[in-house]
Design brief:
Blueprint (H helix, E strand, L loop, with lengths): L6 H21 L16 E5 L3 E3 L3 E9 L4 E8 L6 E4 L7 E10 L6 E10 L8 E8 L10
Length: about 150
């Protein structure tokens, strides 16, 4: 029996290894292969609102936005109120922003208000929209109890 373990055997092993590597690379779509973004998070938003406000009361909404690639803009909207939205877009790509919106007034047309916010990064990726509901109560009247 003659063995061909010399050069032919080593070439066969190398060819098999090259074939296996080619199969593995061909099976990969390559989306993250060379981009270096495997574990990068997208933009995120956090919205803090009061749980309840009196009708006509002015209140503050705090928004914290994080975008590893940099913040392009933040939108804060009062759902159902065409004048109740604000866009904040003067960030020059910084990665973390905290803002307090002011001059939002509790509506008298509903018993609740819904605030929505999202952030877009400099690459055009949006965070999920964060929603918060605020209970709107009737104004309390001050004064002495009647006898």
């Amino acid at each position: 029996m003659v063995r061909s373990s010399g050069i032919r055997g080593r070439l066969a092993v190398r060819a098999a290894a090259a074939f296996a590597a080619a199969v593995l690379v061909a099976g990969c779509e390559g989306g993250n292969l060379f981009e270096g973004e495997v574990a990068e998070e997208g933009p995120r938003i956090e919205l803090t609102v009061p749980t309840s406000v009196e009708e006509g009361e002015t209140f503050t909404v705090t928004v914290r936005a994080t975008a590893p690639r940099g913040v392009q803009f933040i939108d804060v909207t009062v759902v159902g109120d065409p004048t109740g939205g604000q866009r904040f877009d003067d960030y020059d790509g910084i990665s973390q922003v905290e803002i307090e919106t002011v001059s939002l007034t509790a509506s008298s047309t509903s018993s609740t208000m819904t605030i929505e916010a999202f952030v877009q990064d400099v690459n055009g990726r949006n965070s999920a929209t964060e929603r918060a509901t605020i209970q709107v109560t009737a104004p309390t009247t001050g004064g002495a109890p009647s006898d």
